[in-house]
Write a structure and sequence with these properties.
- It is a single chain.
- This protein is mainly alpha-helical.
- The protein is built from ten helices and two strands.
- A two-stranded antiparallel sheet has the order 1-2.
- Helix 2 runs parallel beside helix 5, helix 4 runs antiparallel to helix 5 and helix 8 runs parallel beside helix 9.
- The chain is globular.
- The chain starts with a helix and ends in a 16-residue tail after the last helix.
- The protein binds fe (ii) ion (2 copies).
- The site of one fe (ii) ion has 6 residues, from helix 7.
Length: 203
C-alpha cells in the first residue's frame, strides 16, 4: 500500500501546486489506485511498462518528474509566442495523476512485472479523476494522454499538448531497441511502413 507520504517523497514538487483542490487530487488518485492494488509498497519500483526494464529506461517516477519539468518550460513559451495561457497547476496535477492507474494494471511476478491485458490506464485514470470530483477538462487530458492502444483523440488544446508531451518524456530510443514511436504504431496495429529509403546512420 502506498500512503500520501510515499507519493510526496517521490514527487516533492506536488507541494508547489498552488490550487489546494488540484494538490489534493494529485495524491488522492494514488491513494485510490493503491487501495485497488495494495501490492506496491515502493513507488520507485514501478516501471514504465512490463517490456521496459527500469535498468534500461528509468522508472515511472522519472517519467512523471520529466513531464512536470517540461510543463514548467512550456507555459512561458506558449504565452510569449502565441498568447496561449496554459494553467500550470492544471498541467502539474494532470502529470501527477495520468499514469497512476499503472498501480492497478501492473503486478510484480517472478522477478518481472506483468500487466492486465486490455487494461487502458489512461481511460481508467480519467474515470478516477471524475469519480474523485476533479475538473472535467483535466479528466479529458488524462484519458486522452496515451498513444498506446486504441487512441482517445484529444478534443482540447490542453489535452492535445499533454498527449504530445507524454512520449517526449521517455528514455526509450531506437538506439536501445524499439523506440517510442515504433512501439506506439505497433500498439495501434500499424507496422513500420515498408518504404524503400531507410535511415542509415553514417557512424
Ligand atoms: Fe500513460
Ligand atoms: Fe505517461
Amino acid at each position: 500500500m502506498l500512503i500520501e507520504a510515499d507519493v510526496l517523497r517521490a514527487f516533492p514538487a506536488i507541494k508547489d501546486i498552488a490550487d489546494g483542490r488540484l494538490r489534493k487530487l494529485s495524491t488522492d488518485v494514488w491513494r485510490y489506485v493503491s487501495e485497488r492494488n495494495p501490492a506496491w509498497t515502493d513507488i520507485e519500483r514501478i516501471p514504465l511498462h512490463p517490456t521496459m526494464p527500469i535498468a534500461t529506461h528509468g522508472n515511472l517516477v522519472k517519467h512523471v518528474i520529466a513531464m512536470a519539468r517540461l510543463s514548467e518550460a512550456l507555459v512561458p513559451i506558449y504565452r510569449d509566442l502565441w498568447n496561449q495561457d496554459l494553467d500550470l497547476d492544471t498541467f502539474r496535477a494532470a502529470v501527477y495523476v495520468h499514469d497512476a492507474a499503472k498501480v492497478i494494471e501492473f503486478t510484480e511476478k517472478d522477478g518481472g512485472v506483468v500487466g492486465i491485458p486490455g487494461y487502458n490506464h489512461a481511460i481508467e485514470a480519467g474515470r478516477i479523476v471524475r469519480e474523485l470530483g476533479g475538473p472535467e477538462p483535466l479528466a479529458h487530458m488524462v484519458e486522452a494522454h496515451s498513444l498506446s492502444g486504441p487512441l482517445v483523440v484529444p478534443r482540447t488544446r490542453d489535452a492535445q499538448l499533454f498527449l504530445l508531451m507524454d512520449p517526449m518524456c521517455l528514455n526509450v530510443f531506437p538506439e536501445q531497441g524499439p523506440g517510442v514511436l515504433e512501439r506506439h504504431l505497433k500498439a495501434n496495429g500499424r507496422e513500420d511502413p515498408k518504404t524503400l529509403e531507410r535511415y542509415r546512420s553514417p557512424i
